[in-house]
Amino acid sequence: MSTVQKEPLATHPVKPKLVATNRLEPNPYNPRRLFDREPLDVLRRSIKKVGVLVPLTVYWSSRKEKYVILDGQRHWMCAQALRLKQVPVNIIAEPSVVQNIVTMFQIHKLREDWELMPTALTLEILMHETKERSDTTLSEMTGLDVAVVTRCKKLLSYPKHYQELMLDPNPDKRVKADFFIELYAVRNDRTVNSMKWFSKNRFTRTMLDKYRERKSGLKAVTDFRLMKQYIGNARKAGKAALISARLKEYVESDSLTLEYLNIPSVNVSASARRISQAADKLHGSIAAINPEEYFGEEQMWKALDQLRKLIQRKLEEADRRIKG
To answer: In what side-by-side order are the strands of the sheet with 24-25?
Structure first.
C-alpha cells in the first residue's frame, strides 16, 4: 500500500487578494476538464451582475511564473469571457503532484458530477505517481466511491482514440462514458475473446457505429447487458461455437437484432438452471420444517400439496418415472 499523503492539502486561507486575471492558468491535474456551454453561460450571467463573490484557491508556480488554480476554474473562465481585469484569490503553498491531485479530488468530490473520462485520466496520473493500484486505497485517497474508481479503470483500458471521443468539447458529439463501460463486459468476456474472428478494436468500432446510427436495434447502452447474458447462457449450455457464429453474423449485419443472439435451446438451459437453483433452495426450506410446529398452518400445507401435484404432473408429462 502506498504511503503517500491521503488527505487534501491544507489551505489555511488568509484575506483574499486581488490578482490579475491573466496571471492565472488552469490546473493540469483538474479531474474536470470538460466545461459545457450552458452551465457556464448561467454562471457568467451571475458574475456579470454581482462579480466573483467566492475567491479562487490558487498557488504560485515559480516554474511557470503564474498562479495555478486549485478551485474556481469555472469562475476564472467566466471572468476571462467578461474581460474582468482582476479576481479575488486565496493563495496556498505549492503542492507536490500527488498533493495537487488528491486536493483537487477532495475539493470537488461533493459537487455536481462531471464527465468520467477526465476523472479517469487524472486518476491514471495519480496511479503512475504513487504506483498504487488498489481500488479501495485509491478511493480513500481521492474521496471517489470504489465503484467510480473501478469504472475509471475500465475507461483507461480503451485505446486513446476512444478516450478522445469521450473528451469532445461539444456535448452533442461527445460519446458518453456509459457506452464504453457497458461495452466493457462484452469486450472483455473470456468466451468472446477466445473467438478466432474477434478483434477488440474492430468490435468496439462496429458497436459504436451501430449505437450511434441506431442500427441492429441497438438503442441503449444497457443493451450490452443483454448481449452479455446471451453469450454467458450459450457458454454454460455448451453452445460456444454457435454463439460465436451468431455474434460474428450480428457484427457484420445491420439487419440482425440482439434477439438473434438469443439461442432458444440456450434460453431453456438458462431457465432450467434457475428452476434447479430455486428447487434446491425450496428443498432445504421444506426439509427444515418441523411438522409439529407447523401443524396448524393450513395455507402452507395446502400450497405444498398443490406444488406436489404440479411437480408430479410435470414429471409425467416429461415421461419421467416417479420413484416411490
So the answer is: 17-20, 86-92, 56-61, 66-71, 24-25
